[in-house]
Amino acid sequence: LACSKEGTKWGLGGTCVNVGCIPKKLMHQAALLGTAVKDAKKYGWQIPEPIFHDWATMAEAVQNHVRSLNWGHRVQLQDKKVKYLNMRGSLVDEHTVKGVTKAGKETILTAKDIVIATGGRPKYPTNIPGAMEHGITSDDIFWLRKSPGKTIIVLNSSDVALECAGFLTGIGLDTTVMVRSIALRGFDQQMAVLVTDYMEAYGTKFAWKCIPKKVEKLTSGALQVTWMEINTSKEYQDTYDCILWAVGRAPETKLLGLDKLGVQINKETGKIIVRPDESTSVPNIYAFGDIAEGRPELTPTAIKAGKLLAHRLAGRSSELMNYHSVATTVFTPLEYGCVGLSEEEAEKRHGKDGIEVYHAFYKPLEFTVAERDAGQCYLKVVCEREGDQKILGLHFTGPNAGELMQGFALSLKCGATYSHLLQTVGIHPTCAEEVIKVNITKRSGLDATVTGC
User: Where is the Pyridine nucleotide-disulphide oxidoreductase dimerisation domain (predicted)?
Assistant: First the structure.
């Protein structure tokens, strides 16, 4: 079983199943249901007041589901006759692995090929007094039995941190996000601003351009957090029930014994340097997923890369993983889905005059009767300017962004162009339909607000 500094334990399935996508999406759904209850009144549902959320009920249900997935993985390994050893592994030489149980019992295994897929773990800041003693990370938030209460999340551009802030706000908790520089680094920054603007309107507090200085536990049990505004050097203080550190993830490569084998590592990130076939500098040692340098830290890419690697090692195929145009979604209160290049990256590669950006502010039909603000519901299609205008990137904020983006991801893999969009007939009335209707360019300066139904 994996274990965090706080003692949180979980079983098979990696980050995604235990402390990532699965519990996060379920808790996001809990928050969406809270919003749906408020909307329901406008739609005629008579709901007695007051309504409130019970953390323990949600946590138990989510944790039970995760445990069922752990068990499912265990059963699948048995069915496929895969021997599962619950041990901490390290490499002795390029063909030998040493496993050590919690009780200290050692097992030595030899193999022709060795695959490393150990992922990463959340980091704690090392220069802030009280950070480690009094803080938790995303490894722990999903496994809390009691509500975290009033929470401050300190992030370093992490999407998981924003997602946590979103569902904590959504279930009614006082939530603050402290941001050193920008939110959602690596994503299109116009879209990132729309996401955080919506969150602010939704009730999440933001302390922008701020850095934490220290965390102290008061006699009352509350945590007193001191932070500084970077631009003014002014200090602030407030008390919280919980502080969640989201300052990045790091691989535990030092524990694997790679240095004595000559496995090349990026000294800055600690990640293993890999070739297109996932091999390391030692030919029979492979690495994929979050542990590998330059790979997207996304579960489906790791799964697909692992399957393709297994096929190659078994001699069934020579196909390599294609890491281009991988779609993803950030499950913030207003979801953000994207595939391909950000506008910034497209401009960098093709020049400002080499791209055309079609965009639209739209209003989801379901927001109308509910009288919800749709000011941040937006989409843009980044294209090459010449020829058929090949689509380089697609970005969308709005309901069900992940479901919508998955289909458009396929179209990008097939080389979709702007003219293909225009030839596509929409499904009415959907949000996805707005993508294939988009016709205003940023270059034109015209109002991109969609009118009519």
Answer: 326-435
Q: Which amino acid is at 306?
A: G
| CA angle, residues 261, 278, 114, in degrees to nearest 5 | 45
409 phi and psi angles, rounded to 5 deg = -60, -40
Find the catalytic residue in 53, 65, 95, 428: 428
* 238's tokens: 């407030």
Q: What are phi and psi of 338, to 5 degrees?
A: -150, 155
**Over its length of 453 residues, how does the chain's per-residue pLDDT go in tens digits?**
566 666 677 889 988 999 889 999 999 999 999 999 999 999 999 999 899 999 999 999 999 999 999 999 999 999 999 999 999 999 999 999 999 999 999 999 999 999 999 998 899 999 999 999 999 999 999 999 999 999 999 998 778 999 999 999 999 999 999 999 999 999 999 999 999 999 999 999 999 999 999 999 999 999 999 999 999 999 999 999 999 999 988 888 888 999 889 999 999 999 999 999 999 999 999 999 999 999 999 999 999 999 999 999 999 999 999 999 999 999 999 999 999 999 999 999 999 999 999 999 999 999 999 999 999 999 999 999 999 999 999 999 999 999 999 999 999 999 999 999 999 999 999 999 999 999 999 999 999 999 977
Give the H/E segment covering residue 405. helix 401-413
What structural domains does the chain harbor?
Answer: 21-59+123-249 (3.50.50.60), 334-444 (3.30.390.30)
Strand partners, 292: 272
> 177 pairs with which residues across the strands?
153, 206
Residue with tokens 């919690």: 102
| Nearest residue to 404 via CA among 447, 369, 450, 364 | 364
Structure tokens at 337: 């889905």
Please classify residue 104 by burial: count the beta carbons closer than 10 Å to its beta carbon, then call 0-12 exposed, 13-18 middle and 19+ buried: exposed
